[in-house]
Amino acid sequence: MKRIGILGGTFDPPHLGHMIMAEASREQMKLDEVWFIPSHLPPHKQAAEVGALDRLKMVKQAVKSNQRFYVNDLELNREGKSYTIDTIQQLRLENPETEFYFIIGGDMVEYLPNWHRIDELVKLVQFVGVKRPGFEWDHQYDVHEVDIPLIEISSSEIRLRLAEQKTIRYLVPETVYEYIKEHRLYEA
Ligand SMILES: Nc1ncnc2c1ncn2[C@@H]1O[C@H](COP(=O)(O)OP(=O)(O)OP(=O)(O)O)[C@@H](O)[C@H]1O
Ligand SMILES: O=C(O)c1ccc[n+]([C@@H]2O[C@H](COP(=O)([O-])O)[C@@H](O)[C@H]2O)c1
Fold it and tell me: Strands of 126-130's sheet, edge to edge?
């Protein structure tokens, strides 16, 4: 069985927190690959500031130097909210010889009881959690814990910094930094 990690996210924009959690999960969970899946419409928060195509392109830029990281755009081709249960069902159908591990931050671990059809979802996928500053660790569901240094970086903080014309260099991969500058994203 192939072991694939899934890092779903809004990626508005992708940042080094995402890269560190993906790499630590790959190593500690002995994953063959990590697939980054940008959501079309995030299920639990407001629509992204930047359109789906730019977010997809930024994620492609972010992963391109790592041969075990891939981008999958299946959620961008689906109407309505990007519920994880729909994504996992599709992935399992398309990849029968594969075990999927869904990687989430501490905020999402805390929120798991509210996920759409969570009791079905936990039977279809294993969750991998990484701690995140400011969030409790909820053990209501089985979550494999992966250790990373606590990282304060968030996409919302990056959007705020850009709106205030502050630097975001070294908070995002260099290729993402260049993409944001070139396309003048998140400017007020
Ligand atoms: N610094 C971090 N530490 C741990 N997990 C993180 C971190 N940043 C993001 N994640 C996790 O990565 C996944 C995708 O996150 P997302 O793309 O929504 O970024 P975000 O930084 O949480 O965005 P926003 O600030 O806009 O809410 C989620 O499971 C989230 O919990
Ligand atoms: O399916 C759900 O109900 C659900 C609720 C919250 C989050 N998720 C997924 O968790 C991932 C991280 O979410 P977000 O909004 O923090 O980017 C992303 O792939 C979402 O689709 C999924």
Answer: 69-71, 33-38, 2-9, 98-105, 126-130, 143-146
How far apart (Å, rounded) are the C-alpha atoms in residues 105 and 93?
26
Q: pLDDT exceeding 90 applies to what percent of the chain? A: 91
- Give the pLDDT score at 52: 95
Q: Which two tokens stand for residue 34?
A: 């990590």
Atom 15 of ligand 2: nearest residue by CA position:
42
Using the predicted structure, report yes or no on whether residue 136 has a pLDDT greater than 90. Answer: no
Ligand 2 close to Cβ of residue 10 (< 6 A): yes
Q: How far is CA 62 from the centre of its chain?
A: 12
**φ and ψ at 37, to 5 degrees?**
-125, 100
Q: How far is the CA of 18 from the centre of ligand 1 (A)?
A: 7
Is the CB of 12 within 6 Å of ligand 1? yes
Cβ of 38 below 6 Å from ligand 2: no
DSSP characters over 11-64:
-SS--HHHHHHHHHHHHHTT-SEEEEEE-SS-SSSPPPSS-HHHHHHHHHHHHT
Ligand 1 centre to CA of 9 (Å) is 7
